[in-house]
Structures are given as C-alpha cells and as structure tokens.
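seq/struct pair 1
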Amino acid sequence: MPPLSTLDHGSCRERPADGAYLPDNPRVGAVLMVEGEPDIARMLQHVFHRAHLSVATAPDGCEAVRIFAENPESYSLLFVDCHLTDMDGADLCRRLRAISPGLPVLLVSGTDRRSACAQLEAGGPTVFMRKPYLPVELAWQARSLIQARPAA
C-alpha cells in the first residue's frame, strides 16, 4: 500500500515526527464536512470533535451550498470528499470559495485527485489527502489549515 499522500502547500507543514499533531493556538471555527457515507461521516465527526473543532455535516453538494450560504463566516474549514453523488467535490469547493474567498479546503479521495487540488491552490490553503488516512493526520491537517487562513 502506498504511504499516506498529502500535499504540503507552503502554509501547511508536514506532521511533526514526535506526534504533536495539533498546532498551538488554533483559530476557532466550524468545519463544514461534506461526506455522503453516514458511517464515515459519524467517524469523521468524532475525529474533528477530538481535535476541538465543531462540525456541520452535509451529505451532498447541494445541501452543503445551502448550509454554507446561511452563515458562511462561521466556517473555518471545508472538508470535502471528491466523489459526491450530485457534483464533483472540487467544483463544490470553487462554488463555496466564491462566497468566502480564501476558505481553507481539505479534499479527500480514494483516488489520486492531486491535480484537482493543485487547481484549487490559487484560491486559498488547500490540502489533498488520499484514503486511507490516519485520524491523527486528518486532525493535524485540519487544524493546520485553519491556522493558515489569513485573518479577516
């Protein structure tokens, strides 16, 4: 099995070898998690809560757009599975960044979608993680991305 694939995009560092995966003094905010598999969504929600992040969930892109549009300033991170039932995950990220420029994105997929991630980099902090990934790595990347967003 290939090693966990992450991209380091300047503002996000690699996870320290000592296992200290949560950056100090993270900005507080919620994660909008877009995941269509209910069991996976529950597991991810637990991971984010253990990282002291609140989570709003959406099962697909249309619901994510609706939730996000209601209160875009409350979200510090967008977590999106690339393979949604109703739209491409990268397209969803572009739509939500049109509402909230610079919104950090954590894009995940079981297939290599680094090219989609690279296209999103110009819009703000972006990391791609290929499944399977470790919960500790997910939490560290999420918190790191939140810190990477320029203050408003």
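seq/struct pair 2
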Amino acid sequence: MSCIGTGRLGVAFCLAALVPLIGPAAAAEPTVQELLAAQDRALVNSMVAWEETFFTLPSDVKLDETLREAAVQLASEHLARSRTLWPEWMAQERAASGDANLQGGTLSRPLFLHAINELAIWSLENGGPAQDDAWLKAALAPMACSSLPRPYFARRIAMIQAAPLDARPALLAGERDLLSRWGTKRQSLPTRPAAADLEAADQAITLLRAGLPITAVPMTPFLADRLFDRKRKPDPSDRWEQCAKSQWWLASQLADGKVDRSEALTLWRYSTMFDVNELIPDSVEPSAGTSRLAAGKPAYPLAATYFSVEGVTTVQVDTDALGNLLKARVVSRKLTVPGVRDNPPVAFETLLDAASLDLAAKPGQLAKKSTGFKFDAVWRLEE
C-alpha cells in the first residue's frame, strides 16, 4: 500500500491495490483487465477525495449565503471535471513510462505532483483585464486578510467576500474560467518577478526599523505592531502576516505610480501564492540528502527531496576585487518534477534556490576573484 500525507493540512490518502469483492455466487473470476480497471477506479476515487480537501468551505468561514452557494457550485463543477482529468493524466504517465499497466506509487506520485502544480498555476494565472481589476479591488479590501482558512479554495472565496460587491461577478466568472483551464498547456503564465522585487517589501521594512525614510503608504496598526515587535520572532509560515505585508506593498506600489498595475498584481500573486511546504507531512524528517555536486555541498533540501525536484539552478555571483562575496542571486532554473510536463513547475521552482545560493559562499567557489561570474548548481537525487 502507498500512502501520501499532506502534513499541516491534516490530509492524507492511501492507494491500495484493491481487488473487487467477488461474491460466492459469482459466475466467473475477474479478468486481469477487470482487476486493473478496478484499481484505476480506486485510484481516481482516492485522487478526487484528496482534491476535495482543497475545495471545501469550512462552516466557520463567514460567507453570505449567496456567495457560499456560488462557491459550492464552482467547487462541484471543478471536481466533476477533475474526475475526467485524472484518467487522462494516468494515461499520460503510462505513455511516458512505456508501461501500459503502470500502477501503485510509481503512478500515483506523479499524478499527485501534477495536481499540486495545477494548484500553484491557479494561484498565479490571470483571467484577463476585467478579472485583474476585480482582484486588485479584492486584494486591497480592508478585510482581505482577515480570514485565511487552510483550504486554498476557501481562502480565495473569503477574499472575494471581502471585495466590493461590484467586483464579485467578475471574480466568480474569473474563478470559473481559471478552473476550466486545469489540465491544459498555459501559453502565457506570468513570469516570476526578480528576487529584488520579491524582497522589496522586506527591504523597506528593514529601512523603517532603522528609522530611515521610504516611499510607502501607512501600515495598518495591527500589521505595524506585529512587524515592529522586537520580542516577536518572524514566522515564515504566518499566512496572515504575509498577506497583510503583500497588501501593504501592493498599495504602496500603486500609490507611488511608478509600477505598472499588472506587474504590481503579479508581484502580489507570487507573494501570496499557494505554498507547497504546507503539504509536507510533519512526520517527514530531514535527512542527509545527496547530489552530484562537489564535496562540501549543502544537504539536498527537504522539500526538494520530498517532491523529487531535480535540475540546474544558475547563480549570478558578484564579488569585490579581492573575491569577497558581495551578492548572489538565482538567475535561471531548469528543473524537472515527476508528472509536470506541459507547464513550468511553478509550485516547486524555488525549492533549490536557498541551497544553491549557499554554494556561493563555500570555500573555493569564489577562487576566481572575479567581480562577477555565473555557476550552475546541478542537483540530482540518487536512484
């Protein structure tokens, strides 16, 4: 039996080689084809059950009845369509492997990763100008970050609840359109913003803490209290803080007027996107990961190991004339993830970044004493 847990979301599903129960009065033993078809049905049912956990609306999420009904209908339509997508994805995996009878974890794992990537694409993709305008209203609404439930669909619906009523039709229509794209090859996903842009809000907060002036709108008192509480340790997994900080920075960019609205919204989407780290089971322990890098490399990152991410990250290194490290940043990635083929692996594309940047400071890496150069960090999991 193969089980996949989803950690902090408190969800897990198990895939077993299920054999249909044949009663004593059965006329004949099931054929191999019938047994395989039964296994496929069991796998599809397990996958749909797992996906349903992302499309639930907890009763404690405060929604008006009209919006709740519309959201339930959206989720129902999507899950019904998903039931037809899973067999298609299974056929794709079997074709890619060359094994028409591929079963078990070898089949279920890439399907799992494929679906996770679809969730991430959904959180990043735009549905056109009308939906972008509506999402700007939702993202900037005063109560946009007040309710961030664990199921990601519920989180998006809660933001729609916070949006002005005149934006709701466009938001719901946009959600229906985006969900209808699952399983298709996207032609124009928004490019990941540069690291400097993604870090700009934190840099601005650092300057504020140092008493230096910045160009930004005032923070809400609650956000300011949290960010400037010197006794409080930052928590990267704090969804509320990340949402509120991203909202503040979006408002600051739009008020400044120097950033294009669509670029500002893309930055907000990446800053608040679905986080795959929420899916790592609490029971998964760090191990001494291995890669085909030089001795002294950092351990293979836990999340990258869990999600079987491999590939190459290219790091740009800037040094002074003596070869001392001034700055390092990832400038490109060529990654592979099982099951992810037609679209970029956006859910997983940064999981090797931190370990790759750590390599820039390793002894001997900067021996060139160049003022700037690039190197490739090649990451391969052992068989």
